[in-house]
Amino acid sequence: MRQERTDVVISGAGPVGLALAVELRMHGVEVVVLERLAAVDRRVKAGAIHGRAAEMLDRRGLTEAVARVQREVLAGLGKPPRHRGTGGGPVVRGHFAGIWALRETPYPAAGLTMIPQDRLEEVLAEHAAGLGAAIRREHDLTGFEQDGTGVTVTVDGPDGRYELRAGHLAGADGGRSRVRKLGGFAFPGTDGVITGHQALADLDDPGFAPPGWTRFPRGLMVNGPMPGRLLMVEFGGPPADRDAPVTLEEVQAAARRITGTRVTLRSASSLTRFTDNARLAGTYRDRRVLLLGDAAHVHSPFGGQGLLLGLGDAANLGWKLALVARGEAPDALLDTYTEERRPVAERVLDNTRAQVALLQPGPHVDALREIVTRMLDHDDANRYLTGLITGTDVRYDLGSAQDLVGRCYAPETTVRTSGGEVRLADLQRSGRGLVIAADGAHAAEAADWAGRVDVVAGSCDLAPGASILVRADGFVAWTSDDPAPLGGTLARWFGAARVPAA
User: Fold this and answer.
1) What distance in Å separates the CA atoms of residue 438 and residue 142, rounded to the nearest whole number?
2) Sign of CA dihedral 60, 62, 64, 67
3) Is 370 exposed, middle or buried (0-12, 13-18, 19+ CB in 10 A)?
4) Which DSSP string do the residues of 249-266 spell out, in sequence order?
5) Rounded mean pLDDT of the chain?
6) 3-state class (DSSP) for residue 441
7) How many angstroms separate the Cα of 245 from the Cα of each of 177, 239, 271?
8) CA–CA gap between residue 125 and residue 119 (Å, rounded)
9) 391-401: per-residue pLDDT in tens?
């Protein structure tokens, strides 16, 4: 059996696996992405990105590529984007369990919202391939073994079986992850209580249900936003057989049961069936094997948080794995991946369970929804739920008493330099860490991490007059108001300083 070598193997060419490939290639790490499907899956999945996911793509310079797709999508719907807010981008109004009461949040870059998941995969695949990632479709991971120096991955490809020898394996292969199962990762959680269906349908009566989210006595019907797109949820338990082919008759029967109509689906595509089992891997790492995206956590789709969560995993893991793969940081840096990202997923599992409870039919839940709706009129409650859904309130405990440390900056944050003002996001196109040095001594100190950390002389409106260190994922790791030394913090996150040549 032939054997090839690479630095990192990624199983799964969905948006999360491709985002990780982008991050790794920005650091020169050799990457092979394995995908069992021959082409992008066109079934209806996430229809938009928001919050930190949009901001991550902005930091990597994908604003215009995503905006171009959004313009096509909105043109197809006959809906031009609304432009308001300081960044000039579209304004997104979120919901919690179909309660459209969350504050309108202006995102910084035009177009970073309405993009279906399959189109996002195309954008990321093109970008990853352009950076040199090898994306192999119809190549199926069938097994792997790891040892002290690497992982040997067995692959079935169109031309037969072969092996890939790599330093690390990343499983981004979905909720039924083969990497997770073969690796023996614990995956505890709660079983599903709903049966959901999605479809793009040609209906004999497009007005059979009101547009938007409607709770009927027998379930939930979401009609739209595009014509014929249906999402249906019944609360009688999970599907009897998750693996059986989804039929037109099955989806039509669900639509009729929920709405009490005789609506007919003349034809349909993108038929899917789902439930709301919520599970979370006990750890995201076993030595040289790592999990991210749905391979590490599954939950109901409500609130559109799955894609947001998975892209956040890729942003957190990518630069760390690159530093370890290049031998520039110790292996222990990868332990911070689970430490930081698993609590974020726990919050998502909890809030999606809460949304399922709030979507159930009946007068008791009606009363509860009325109370929640009124609570959201209060700024503090609304701000809390808005941050929860968008991920904009995520904070990592980095061991500092400084309020800014551990928080992710907003991309439109301004940096003032001798050459003028620039957006902080535009300074992180390299994927490296960034020191904004208000003091020349800090710039000189950070120079010993050249190639891993960029240095810009200036000040930032996050901490006027202070120097700050921003990690590659946008989270602030240090400010000069912190008693910890810059050099120690740089060594913690980016490995030991380089030794000057003799």
Assistant:
1) 52
2) negative
3) exposed
4) HHHHHHHHHHH-S---EE
5) 91
6) helix
7) 20, 12, 9
8) 10
9) 888 999 999 99
Write down how long the chain is.
502
| Residue among 6, 53, 60 nearest 34 (CA) | 6
DSSP string, 81-131: PPB-STT-PBEEE--BTTB--SPEEE-SSTT-S---HHHHHHHHHHHHHHT
The predicted model gives 480-494 an average pLDDT of: 94
Single-letter residue type at 88: G
Distance CA 85, CA 412 (A): 11
Q: Two tokens at 86?
A: 């300081």
Provide the token pair at 13: 């060419």
Residue 138 backbone zone (phi > 0: left; psi -120 to 50: alpha; other: beta): left
Q: DSSP 3-state assignment of 15? A: helix
Distance, CA of 37 to CA of 146 (rounded, Å): 25
Instruction: Pull the structure tokens for residue 500.
Output: 């000057």
Q: Dihedrals φ, ψ of 251, to 5°?
A: -70, -40
The whole-angstrom separation of Cα 10 and Cα 139 is: 11
**Is the full-model pTM beyond 0.90?**
yes
- Amino acid (1-letter code) at residue 146: Q
Q: Taking residues 491-501, what's their average pLDDT? A: 84
Residue 250, CA atoms < 13 Å, CB-side half-sphere = 20
